[in-house]
Design goal:
The protein is α+β, with helices and mostly antiparallel strands and about 725 residues long. About 25% of the residues lie in helices and about 30% in strands. The strands form eight sheets. Strands 11, 12, 15, 16, 17, 18, 21, 22, 23 and 24 form a ten-stranded mixed β-sheet that branches. Strands 1-13-10-2-7-4-5 form a seven-stranded antiparallel β-sheet, with no helix packed on it. A five-stranded mixed β-sheet has the order 9-8-3-6-14, with no helix packed on it. Helix 4 packs antiparallel against helix 5, helix 9 packs antiparallel against helix 10 and helix 9 packs across helix 11. Bound molecules: beta-D-glucopyranose.
Length: about 725
């Protein structure tokens, strides 16, 4: 058993008021150490240090369904010990959610305890020292520790930091609290780590006279600076993703999140960076500053969950490459322990719909297995007694249960299965999935016709251009996703070999759902809803009669042509749009949409300077005006879902549900005259798969790499080949 269970929860004995506090204890080591291990956690976030050296991960212990569990971390600290030592844990509130969403809502996220309020924090740690002579010592958090007020006078994830170099805090005794330890669980997810270090690319003096530093990349993390700030003087820095049309600093879209750093100097040089907060930004504004600005003094550090990069894509078109770059950075910016909608404004929440939409692409880009597994555990904890899946995981106190959002509990495990062959995860999530499916049927119309569905979020076909819910009937969407989730549930049940009666029962339910859809939304076999999304989902979820699928695909193509070869789809339709066009013989049109630069399109944002994915197709309009400040993020990965079409269709590395996890590869590249080459590689548990093609105007040369021990099925137009391990070249 990890020794942390022998330790005690400690709180400050004084009111900390959103300042961070440092819990510490000194100890001597008199014998030769074989191994030293630290286990640590916090209700809040903590930074652990031994002899002043930080040894903990970024923003540990991460964000989980806190009422049910809090992760703890294990560190090998053998090399940090000396004869005289101090072990310390500095803690702050972290994701405790006392100030959130829209600025109006104050949610105190309950800890699972009795003595501690949601807006307070506590730490717990155990250090085991194993000596070479076979004996051991253990240091645990207890009443022998002390706690000190720190220079971190204020740390709030949304509002920012106040750090005062001149502050000399008092030392107090600690308060040992009787808080349950069974909430502690070993780290399940990926750790959060610092990644890219970006130097400024420009110092800008804006028309309004502001001093702004541009790091060239919209990102999530924090800045670091090395400065000498005069004693008692402060510098004030805030963050932004874009400059406005006139070139001025713009952060109105952060809503109530101030995202501001106030740093008070002591007249000597320090290198400083936040430790208990993070920011979404490309630009910083030096609102108050002293002396000349030396760009070398500043660095932007990207932080995200430490997933292994597995996928790479490249083609001959620089704009598509920039789109791909934006997708990758959208993922880096929003895979911060949980999948978030955005990293900058006063949300940064685990919105389920967004994650559902992007999970497949994300799992090509990076190995997300561990990351999603942990989040799915929290989803199971957050599932309501009646089976409803909240729209945000970990959830806040207010809830709604929306189609296309709640279905995340089926779609994400299913994608994990396709991409990684993770059958065990299906088994583990089975009950959660089943309870969700049952919820939808038990609630019947009360669910389908509830006013809680978000709809085809942010699509371009809403009757009112300023509304967010899109132009596709939400009731239709609720039926459609019920059908899809049920169909996946049936597949999952078969994979897991659950009893045949269940499978029959849910097959009947699926048929019943399809009948209802056809009664309500089809006439003469064709959809009566004239939106692109309704057609895309009809194809993807096979909602119409099989014989009518092609007619729906052709109708979809016709609607796109009529719209000037532009899409209108929102969050729910977009992920499948290009796939469905390809599957039903309209690959050329899919490429036309990919290369479209007029709004709405993927390359529109690229042409407008995006370095991450935008929340809205028209986040910045052609006339330079911006979407309403109420909801306008420039780092929202949902539309980045198209990345899986780049891997799967352009480069042609496709998943195969009969051979999940690429245990048998399916190559099916679709070339276009618009590109002279495309290539992708994907690291799988079996080795690295690669696919590449070059087009010289007359012929196409394809190269495929199959890792040893694997085989592949290659589809080149009508031709089918079986490939063994090795590198294969074809000319056509
Ligand atoms: C979030 C979304 C989310 C949505 C629900 C927004 O505020 O940023 O991405 O899915 O609400 O519709």
């Amino acid at each position: 058993m990890d020794r942390i269970y022998l330790a005690n929860w400690l709180m400050p004995s004084f009111k900390e008021n959103e300042a961070a506090s440092e819990f510490f204890r000194s100890f001597s080591v008199e014998k030769s150490v074989k191994k030293a291990t630290l286990w640590a956690s916090a209700l809040g976030v903590y930074a652990a240090r031994i002899n002043g050296k930080k040894i903990s991960y970024v923003l540990a212990p991460g964000w989980t369904a806190y009422h049910a569990r809090v992760q703890y971390q294990e560190y090998d600290v053998t090399e940090y010990l000396k004869e005289e030592n101090t072990l310390s844990l500095t803690a702050a509130g972290g994701w405790r959610m006392d100030y959130g969403f829209g600025g109006n809502l104050k949610v105190i996220k309950p800890w699972a305890g009795k003595e501690i309020a949601g807006n307070e924090y506590a730490v717990i740690a155990a250090l085991l020292i194993e000596y070479a002579d076979g004996t051991e010592d253990m240091i645990v958090t207890d009443e022998n520790w002390s706690v000190k007020e720190t220079k971190w006078r204020y740390c709030n994830i949304y509002q920012g930091d106040i750090y005062d170099e001149t502050f000399e805090g008092n030392t107090h005794s600690v308060k040992v609290i009787d808080h349950p330890k069974h909430v502690l669980e070993q780290q399940e997810g990926e750790i959060i780590a610092e990644h890219e270090h970006l130097k400024p690319i420009a110092l800008i003096h804006t028309p309004k006279g502001e001093t702004v530093i541009d790091f060239g990349q919209n990102m999530t993390g924090y800045i670091s600076f090395t400065l000498t700030v005069p004693k008692g003087e402060k510098i004030v820095i805030d963050h932004a993703e874009i400059l406005d049309y006139e070139g001025n600093f713009y952060n109105d879209n952060y809503r109530s999140a101030k995202a501001e750093i106030i740093y008070i100097g002591d007249g000597t040089e320090h290198t400083w960076k936040p430790e208990f907060t993070f920011y979404g930004f490309r630009y910083i504004r030096l609102k108050e500053f002293h002396g000349e600005v030396n760009l070398d003094a500043f660095t932007a550090i990207a932080v995200h969950s430490d997933m292994e990069r597995t996928g790479y894509f490249e083609c001959s078109d620089p704009k598509v490459n920039q789109l791909y770059h934006n997708i990758i950075w959208g993922q880096k910016g929003n895979f911060l322990d949980i999948p978030t909608d955005c990293p900058q404004r006063d949300e940064r929440l685990g919105w389920t719909g967004d994650a559902q939409v992007f999970a497949r692409c994300a799992s090509y880009n990076y190995n997300t297995r561990k990351f999603f597994r942990k989040w799915l555990t929290d989803m199971t904890h957050e599932q309501q007694p009646n089976g409803a899946i909240p729209h945000i995981i970990p959830r806040l106190d207010w809830e709604s249960c929306s189609c296309g959002w709640a279905d995340v509990c089926v779609i994400v495990p299913w994608q994990m299965y396709l991409l990684y062959g993770d059958r065990e995860l299906l088994a583990r999530q089975y009950v959660t999935i089943k309870r969700w499916i049952d919820y939808m049927y038990e609630q019947g119309d009360a669910y389908i016709r509830s006013g809680k569905h978000y709809g085809d979020w942010l699509s371009q076909d809403a009757p009112d251009p300023n509304s967010c819910g899109g132009g596709t009937s939400k009731w239709f969407l609720a039926y459609a996703f019920r059908a899809y989730s049920t169909s996946l549930f049936i597949k999952i049940s078969k994979i897991l070999g659950t009893n045949k009666r269940d499978i029959q029962e849910y097959t009947a339910k699926l048929e019943e759902t399809k009948c209802r859809i056809r009664e309500d939304y089809f006439k003469d076999g064709m959809l009566t809803l004239m939106t692109q999304t309704a057609h895309v989902l009809t194809l993807k979820f096979e909602l119409c009669e099989e014989s009518m699928l092609q007619a729906h695909a052709d109708k979809l193509a016709e609607m796109i042509h009529e719209n000037g070869d532009r899409l209108t789809t929102g969050f729910l339709g977009t992920p499948y749009l290009l796939h469905m066009l390809t599957e039903y013989g309209h690959t050329d049109l899919a490429y036309t949409l990919l290369f479209q630069t007029k709004m709405p399109s993927w390359l529109y944002a690229v042409e407008h300077g995006a370095t991450t994915m935008w929340e809205h197709w028209d986040g910045i309009r052609d006339d330079g005006s911006l979407w309403d400040v109420g909801m306008n993020s420039y780092n929202h990965y949902a539309y980045g879902a198209v990345g899986d079409w780049l891997y799967g269709t352009v480069a042609g590395i496709e998943t195969d549900e009969d051979h999940p996890g690429f245990e048998k590869i399916r190559f099916c590249p679709k070339t276009t005259d618009k590109l002279t080459y495309a290539k992708a590689s994907l690291k799988t548990k079996y080795g690295t798969i690669a696919s590449e093609w070059h087009h010289d105007g007359e012929k196409v040369t394809y190269t495929f790499t199959v890792p040893s021990g694997l085989s592949a099925k290659l589809e080149l137009g009508e031709e089918i080949f079986e490939l063994g391990a090795g590198t294969h070249t074809f000319e056509r």
